[in-house]
Amino acid sequence: MTVDEGSEATVDDAAEELADGSDDEAESRTQRVVEFSESLIRGIEIVAAYVLVVLFAIGVFDLSLQIGEQAFTPNIFDPEVVVGFIDTALLLFIIVEVYQTVVAYTRRDETRSIVRLVLYTGIIAIVRKVIVYRTDTFATKTDALLTAAAYAVILLSLGALLYVEREAVSDS
């Protein structure tokens, strides 16, 4: 081996080490950026959870006011008023389910439990729509029928998905 050959090998080795070092540095920089963005997302998830807590508190206060206003009037027995109370209460349940979903994401819970929460939220939302459903609010009977059919399909689909999810859990 000549001196030139040895020095070429050393230069090549040094170039490889520099390239490996710059790759490690780039990976480290990328990792720091990813960790920062994950922390930022987690912080925003926590803020979203607090916003939902505030919305829930406002909703409970509003429902209490609605009931209080109607409690000593004959309207308390009006089906539309009672359906309005139920609608508001179900909306509060939806807020709670969304809150639980956000908390589950923040805790990094198992995906299955998050899916279950989303399914429950969807079922509550559709049940809410079904309870307040009124055919007289549609322009035609066909529109009312199509809407009712859509609610039924969505509710049955969500129910089937929840059943499948529960069966998958019991099989594991």
From TrEMBL:
Subcellular location: Cell membrane
Mode of membrane association: Multi-pass membrane protein
Main location: membrane
Assigned GO CC terms: plasma membrane
Annotated Pfam families: PsiE
Domain of life: Archaea
Residue numbers spanned by region Disordered: 1-26
Keywords of this entry: Cell membrane, Membrane, Transmembrane, Transmembrane helix
Transmembrane segments: 39-61, 81-102, 114-132, 144-164
Protein name: Phosphate-starvation-inducible PsiE family protein
Species annotation: Halorubellus litoreus
